[in-house]
Design brief:
Layout lengths: L3 H6 L1 H5 L9 E4 L1 H4 L5 E2 L7 E3 L3 E7 L14 H4 L8 E7 L7 E11 L3 E6 L22 E8 L2 E3 L5 E2 L4 E7 L6 E2 L3 E2 L2 E2 L11 E5 L7 E7 L13 E2 L1 E10 L8 E3 L3 E8 L2 H20 L3 H11 L1 E6 L5 E8 L5
Helix pairs in contact: 5-6
Length: about 325
């Protein structure tokens, strides 16, 4: 959970219209959602309209749309590409316009149903041939794992229990013009698969269209850095978000803040370009808000900067560059 002390000290509280205090409560259920969205774009009708500072509980489905229900299922027979990674929303925020920023505080990501699902998919993952990295090798076999998820963790088997470390794999806003698949991350957010988008974090995403049009889905119970098989422990979840609006603050792509660090996010191929985008944006953030000279910030990151690999399997890869707040002064 996000503490009151963190909210008072965050960028959100310093700049937001609603000063970080919770407004009205809303719920976007599966029934309210109706058809899921599979494209981030300015062409969808809002499923919900809220005021800055309001809190929304969103019922999300897993990345498979809930159709994989057994370890005997074959994903290629159950899934229809590109209708994967269903998104809830969009949620419109009153008063949001281009040049502003949505500040989304992640209060909770709660498993719904007591289970999670992962699998191997043909031509998908970091260590296999794909449609863009074409190989003559035969695809790996399709394997499905259904695992129990509870307060004790994610139960891989009788011997291995992973920590329950839930986060939002896909979250973002509508681009101004493009229609971008929910499988792809970019400057609008999207399928970043970044484990730091977790309870206790605030993610900042620049607004490109009236209302901002926020999408969310693809929650994970557990995921290693890089999501190397292409699939985490996918889970249906109840996601609690506080969505605020910062007027007149814009930048190149998603940023993130926790009690301990700030992070800038870059998505691109090749992977080193994603890292470069993230590092450049972090340096610009340090210069604009923390009184660093850009070259001094560059040198500081060379000593104490950190890099997080979100995914290296999606159409674009995601990296997060961060620095602990104790070095910001």
């Amino acid at each position: 959970m996000i503490t009151d002390e963190f909210l008072k000290s965050s960028i959100m509280a310093r700049r937001a219209v609603a000063s970080g205090s919770a407004g009205r409560q809303h719920r976007l259920t599966i029934a309210d959602q109706g058809d899921y969205e599979y494209v981030y774009g300015p062409y969808s009708n809002a499923r919900l309209e809220i005021d800055p500072g309001d809190v929304v509980v969103v019922e999300t489905e897993d990345a498979f749309g809930g159709v994989i229900t057994s370890e005997d299922d074959r994903p290629t027979e159950k899934l229809t590409f590109p209708f994967l990674n269903p998104q809830c929303g969009p949620i419109a925020v009153r008063g949001a316009e281009k040049g502003d920023c949505l500040a989304i505080a992640v209060h909770a990501v709660d498993n719904r149903g007591g289970f999670g699902t992962t699998c191997l998919l043909p031509e998908f993952g970091a260590l296999v041939g794909t449609s863009v990295t074409a190989m003559l090798n035969q695809p790996l076999p399709e394997i499905v794992r259904r695992v129990r998820v509870d307060a004790e963790g994610t139960h891989w088997n009788d011997r291995l229990v992973f920590p329950y470390e839930p986060f939002i794999g896909t979250i973002g806003v509508a681009p101004q013009l493009e229609a971008i698949s929910s499988l792809q991350p970019d400057y609008h957010g999207g399928n970043m698969d970044l484990p730091d988008v977790r309870p206790g974090a605030i993610i900042y995403i620049p607004v490109h269209t009236p209302g901002g049009m926020l999408f969310v889905g693809d929650c994970h119970a557990t995921q290693g850095d890089g999501e190397i098989t292409g699939v985490a422990i996918e889970q249906p979840a109840n996601v609690t978000l506080q969505v605020d609006l910062i007027k007149g603050w814009s930048f190149a792509g998603p940023r993130l803040e926790t009690e301990d660090f700030i992070m800038a996010v870059g998505s691109a191929r090749p992977l080193d370009d994603a890292a470069r985008i993230a590092l450049r944006e972090l340096i610009r953030w340090m210069a604009a808000d923390y009184r660093f000279d850009e070259l001094d910030a560059y040198m500081v990151l060379g000593q104490v900067g950190r890099m997080r690999l979100g995914n290296m399997v999606d159409p674009k890869y995601t990296m997060g560059a961060s620095i602990l707040k104790r070095y910001l002064g």
